[in-house]
Amino acid sequence: MTSKISAENLTKRYGPTVAVDNISLKVDPGRIVGFLGPNGAGKTTTLKLLTGLLKPDSGQVEICGHDLATEPTAAKSKLGYVPDVPHLYEKLTPLEFLSFIADVFGLPQKISSKRIADLISLFDLGPQAGKLISSLSHGNKQKVSLAAAVLHRPEALLLDEPTGGLDPRATRKIKDVILELARGGCAVLFSTHILEIAENMCDSLIIINGGKIVAQGPIAQLKQSAREGSTLEELFIELTGGSEYGEVIRYLND
């Protein structure tokens, strides 16, 4: 089986700081892989490298068999991306923006019109569809960002905290969309700080700390390699810096 998202030996430096340190990962068709790590671990930088928004100092990225460096258009045509902060054309309405995205991906108007209408309905964006994006709440901007990312039915999907700022209803819908895309064969790499979502949705995890992958594999397998009876939260803390609970107790009793 050919992986739809593949990175080999990715490294990215900012001066003396190594933000991403020789990372290799793969996501196969139909799989949802959780990408976990503390703040500043290198998750967002890695995702930007995988989309081509950043150029690695070394290493290679392939999206659906296309080298991102030598075949950027072919690679990006297969890719959907939801950043941690929505980057949208704020002087357009959601309808105008989604129509623009459909044109970028070359979708026939008959197909794009139906998909846009379905996504507007799915994410409860009807009342906002004709308003300028600049006037929307963060949560509604996030919905527009996700709708744009899945409009062309990508074969690979990169998500950077896609549920941030969303209410429970919208979060549930986004989870359902991700699961349905995966059932259709899409490969999903999903960065989140919400461990419950990771445990309930993901087939496996990649845990990163200090720019390095410190663990990866199926959740059950990772738990078996940790202390007996560890929860995912305890496993995460163990792998990314030890027990903060003891520090809290010492602070409160100082």
Outline: globular
Rg from Cα: 19 Å
Biggest β-sheet: count, sense, barrel?
Answer: 6 strands, mixed
Strand content: 15-25%
**Number of helix segments?**
10
- Strand tally: 10
CATH architectural type of the largest domain: 3-Layer(aba) Sandwich
For the record, what CATH class of the largest domain applies? Alpha Beta
What level of helicity do the residues show?
A: 25-40%
Main-sheet strand order equals 6-7-8-3-9-10
Short description:
The chain is an alpha/beta fold and 254 residues long. Helices cover 40% and strands 24% of the residues.
Written description of the protein model:
The protein has 254 residues and is of the alpha/beta class. The chain has 2 domains: 1-78 and 158-218, Rossmann fold (3-Layer(aba) Sandwich), CATH 3.40.50.300; 86-153, no CATH class. The chain is 40% helix and 24% strand. The chain has 10 helices and 10 strands. It has helices at residues 43-51, 72-77, 94-104, 109-122, 138-150, 168-183, 195-201, 219-225, 232-240, 244-252; strands at 5-14, 17-27, 32-36, 58-63, 66-67, 79-82, 156-160, 187-191, 204-209, 212-218. Strands 6-7-8-3-9-10 form a 6-stranded mixed beta sheet, with helices on both faces. A 4-stranded antiparallel beta sheet has the order 2-1-4-5. Strand 9 and strand 10 form a beta hairpin. Helix 3 packs across helix 4 (109-122). The protein starts with a strand and ends with a helix.
